[in-house]
Design brief:
Elements (H helix, E strand, L loop, with lengths): L6 E8 L12 E8 L4 E6 L6 H9 L3 E5 L8 H4 L4 E5 L3 H17 L4 E5 L14 H5 L15 E7 L10 H12 L5 E5 L5 E7 L3 H10 L9 H12 L5 E8 L7 H12 L2 E7 L5 H8 L1
Parallel strand pairs: 3-4, 3-5, 5-6, 7-8, 7-10, 10-11
Antiparallel strand pairs: 1-2, 8-9
């Protein structure tokens, strides 16, 4: 017996026997769902996004229909004709709640396949969080923020830029560092005068710290040694796993073996130091900052 066309079919069997006194058990019926060749619906966020997927499926002789989010049937019956659905970098806003709910029922109730490919418009950045699509997928859209990142303590040493430009690049760079830190991290700010103008504190109020940086009047130190020694003392009092000093200056100071000894001492204490030349006038000053 040849298989019928794809779809649901009913088969009924009837037995006729002579001298049969119980006719109720002479008939039985069953439903059969003939799958037929697989048919996959590929939905593209942008034209061509799923071309590699389409080519791979077609290479295995799977029938493929390509469309946009608007081509997803809005009823489960309409979607039931497909063996699987592929979303190729499709944002949630294009799908809409109704179609995401249909896809959820398609997977949950019919046991069909759903593949979601990553891209610039899918998963977390595609707005899947707290949607029926997120509930359908075996992953969560929550991105742990610095979950395994050790806490950091930073001392920013910002010396005078010695210019009257509209933008103080040293201060702007310092504020950029503040923007990268989390409330778990700590920061202290020095104006190059050997003491902190902003005491070591957790980064819970970036606006206040940025204001201190904007309004402070940095010094033009003759040596970086006082600030480095002060930074060492402050950092050693913290419980941060990473202790770091960032020096933003022009390198026009006089440094001797004492500064070198101080840096080596800090290195042995696992305190790292970075220098950023923000207004160096010549190669000699740049060389000092590199050292």
């Amino acid at each position: 017996m040849l298989a019928p066309p794809p779809g649901f079919h009913t088969y009924r069997v009837t037995l006729e026997a002579t001298q049969d006194t119980i006719l109720a058990n002479n008939e039985a019926a069953a439903f059969v769902n003939v799958q037929g060749p697989p048919h996959v619906l590929v939905i593209e966020g942008k034209p061509g996004e799923g071309q590699n997927i389409v080519a791979a499926l077609q290479a295995t002789r799977i029938k493929v229909t390509v469309g946009t989010a608007n081509d997803i049937p809005t009823t489960l019956d309409g979607l039931a004709g497909y063996s699987g659905v592929v979303l190729a970098d499709v944002p949630a806003v294009s799908l809409g709640t109704a179609r995401m709910q249909i896809l959820q029922a398609y997977v949950r109730d019919l046991g069909r396949g759903l593949v979601v490919s990553g891209g610039e418009n899918s998963y977390g950045v595609g707005g899947y969080a707290n949607t029926p699509l997120e509930q359908t997928l075996p992953v969560t859209m929550d991105i742990p923020q610095h979950k395994e990142t050790p806490n950091i303590a930073v001392v920013l040493i910002v010396e005078s830029l010695e210019s009257n430009g509209e933008i103080n690049i040293s201060k702007e760079a310092a504020k950029g560092v503040i923007g990268l830190l989390t409330p778990r991290d700590q920061v202290g700010v020095s104006g190059g005068c050997g003491t902190l103008v902003a005491p070591m504190q957790h980064v819970t109020n970036r606006t206040a710290i940025d204001h201190i940086i904007d309004t402070m009047d940095p010094c033009d130190p003759g040596s970086y040694l006082p600030d480095l020694a002060n930074a060492e003392t402050v950092l050693l009092k913290t419980d941060a796993k990473i202790k770091h000093v960032i020096l933003l200056g022009d390198g026009d100071t006089f440094e001797d073996s004492q500064t070198t000894a101080q840096l080596l001492k800090m290195a042995n204490e696992h305190i790292t130091v970075s220098t950023v030349a923000t207004n160096a006038e010549d190669y000699q000053q740049l060389g000092l900052m590199q050292q």
